[in-house]
Structure formats: structure tokens, C-alpha cells
């Protein structure tokens, strides 16, 4: 509106102005992230409902729905808080994450499904601190890698060593539970962040050498537990122990294969209804998708996850901030690795690692933390020069 004497003239709004106003009014700043996450969460609710429908008095579906609701609220809050505020509170968040991991090792901790990784606060109220420590560790490592010294365009040796030290503390605490699958997630996301930050290539040769030396040390010191060795043997020969250690993988392949192209229909899976696959509502939720939704439905789950990961990689590539780029890279590595391992172990291509399928598997801690991670991506997206 411009004034010309007693007259006033309304100037037409530019397209850029209208798009900026719409972006400010939008509930979420990055629909390319929110829509895949919402679709995966909705599919997960249906699959959890199907997997537990025959259990009398089951409260798992409404609990999962509550976790999804809390996760979306936290996603929105994290995306609106922004990176600057989050960065200011990184030390507090990191120490809280470590405190939760330490608390698990005290009498507050409980063993569930063979892992002493849970804190039980009351009847039905439990959470897994390692899930929330993932985001805190990503922020801490990103802080170390996202502050190059004057004249440096990529992190130096000091920054890389600091990042590795910050990641080593939660990895060590998680290994004591023991939960080696989750510990491996921390290692992968840390190395991925170092790669995204542009560290010198010599570090990757050092990581490879350290990994090989670690595997040799574990083997020579006989640190592999018998059940872990049996899982590796079953992977090499799935039919070696079909009623023992190979039971999960065998039943999972049967359930997925029986779905065919289009599946048997939601709530009509015979393998799912018979509960032939243990933990089919958590770690093996992909078997329910394969049987009831078929190849096309299972492929849809994977494509939705790929769409979210692609958007996350785009955000990392476009971020003008080294800190934001490292955060986005860490979240993408976290979600991508867990998806790869979960689907791989369900199909018998990888050993059983006990990692949930992000957004889809039942689990309040995993669901809330994964959705909060999407909020981190949205916060980074708000700082990019290119509009979402």
C-alpha cells in the first residue's frame, strides 16, 4: 500500500512475497519431510494393529498412536526452535543423554528382550535412553565438526578427534548394556558426519584400519558371545538351525514370501495372525507389511523412506552452515542405516541386530526420537538459502 496524496494505491504482491507468506503460515516448514514421515507412521499404526489384533486387551496400538502424536508435536517444536537455540543448549542435551545411559546401568535399569537398555518408571511406562541419546550425540558431534578454525574450510585433526571422543562415550555405555546394534548406529552416524563435514581422506583409511583391527581383536580375545556366533552361522546357512537360532529369519522369509505381489490384505495375514514370527510388531514389523501388503506394499514403505532420506540429503547439500550440514548428514545416516539393517535382517540378508524400522516399528522411544530427528532436518532446512 502506497500513499499518493489523498489517494492510496495497493501494489500487487510479487510471487516471491506470496511464497514467503505461505511459508510463514505453513504448519511445518518442509512438507517433503513431513509427508513421508506421516505416511510411514500411519502405515506403522495399521501394521502394529494387525500384528496385535488377536491379543486380548492389547493396548499397543493406542500407545503407539500416542507416541506418534507426541513425536509430531516434538517435531514441530524442534523445527520452530531453530538451530541457533539448539546449538546453545548442546552441552546440556549431550549431558542429559549421557545421564540417561548411565542411569540404565543403575538399579533403575531393566532388561527387556535380552538387553539391559530400559528405564521403567511405573506400570507400562518405560523408555530407552539410547534412542534419545542419538539426537543429542548428533548435535554434539556436529558442534565439534561445524566450527572450523580460521582459514580452514573443513575440520582439522583436532575437530575429528573431538567428534570421535564425544561419540565414544555413548558408544561405550551402550556396549555395556550390551546393545551392539544400537552402538553400531552411533558409530555409523558419527563416521557419516565426518564424511559430510569434508574431513581429509586419510581419516577414512584410519577408520578402515581401526575397524579391521577391532574385528581381529574381538575374534582373538573370544569376545563374541555364543548366540552372536550362532546368528552369523545361521546367516551363512539359513537352514542350519530352522527351529533354533534360525527360527526368526526362517519364519520372516516365509511370511514375506507368502504375500506375493499384492499381499493377503490388511488384517488377513495367516502368518501374522498365528504369531509365527517373534517380535513381529517391533523389530520384525516388515514381515507384516510383506505378508499383508505384498511386494508392492513393502516396496511402498521403502520408497517412502527413500523419499525422506533423499530430502534429507538435499537439505544437507544445500545447507550454508557446516553445523547444519553435519546435523542433517547425521540424521540421514541414522535413519538410513537402521532401515537398511532392519529390512536386511528381516529378509535374511543380514544377521538379526534388534534395530527397529524407523516410524513403522512399535516403540515409543524409537518413534518419538525418529520424529524429533525429522524436526532437526526441518530446522536445518529453514536455514538454507533455497526455499523448501
TrEMBL record:
Q: Which reaction does it catalyse?
A: [GlcNAc-(1->4)-Mur2Ac(oyl-L-Ala-gamma-D-Glu-L-Lys-D-Ala-D-Ala)](n)-di-trans,octa-cis-undecaprenyl diphosphate + beta-D-GlcNAc-(1->4)-Mur2Ac(oyl-L-Ala-gamma-D-Glu-L-Lys-D-Ala-D-Ala)-di-trans,octa-cis-undecaprenyl diphosphate = [GlcNAc-(1->4)-Mur2Ac(oyl-L-Ala-gamma-D-Glu-L-Lys-D-Ala-D-Ala)](n+1)-di-trans,octa-cis-undecaprenyl diphosphate + di-trans,octa-cis-undecaprenyl diphosphate + H(+)
Where is it chiefly localized? membrane
Q: How does it sit in the membrane?
A: Multi-pass membrane protein
Looking up PANTHER family in the UniProt record yields:
CELL CYCLE PROTEIN (PTHR30474:SF14)
Q: Does the keyword Membrane apply?
A: yes
Pathway it belongs to? Answer: Cell wall biogenesis; peptidoglycan biosynthesis
Record organism: Microbispora bryophytorum subsp. camponoti
Q: What is its EC number?
A: 2.4.99.28
Decide whether keyword Membrane is in the record. Answer: yes
Q: What is the lineage of its organism?
A: Bacteria, Bacillati, Actinomycetota, Actinomycetes, Streptosporangiales
Pfam family of the protein (one): FTSW_RODA_SPOVE
Q: What name has this protein been given in UniProt?
A: peptidoglycan glycosyltransferase
Compartment(s) of residence: Membrane
Tell me the InterPro entries matching this sequence.
Cell_cycle_FtsW-rel_CS, FtsW/RodA, RodA/MrdB
Keywords for this protein: Cell shape, Membrane, Transmembrane, Transmembrane helix
Its transmembrane ranges are: 21-49, 61-78, 85-105, 125-145, 157-174, 180-196, 203-221, 293-314, 326-353, 359-380
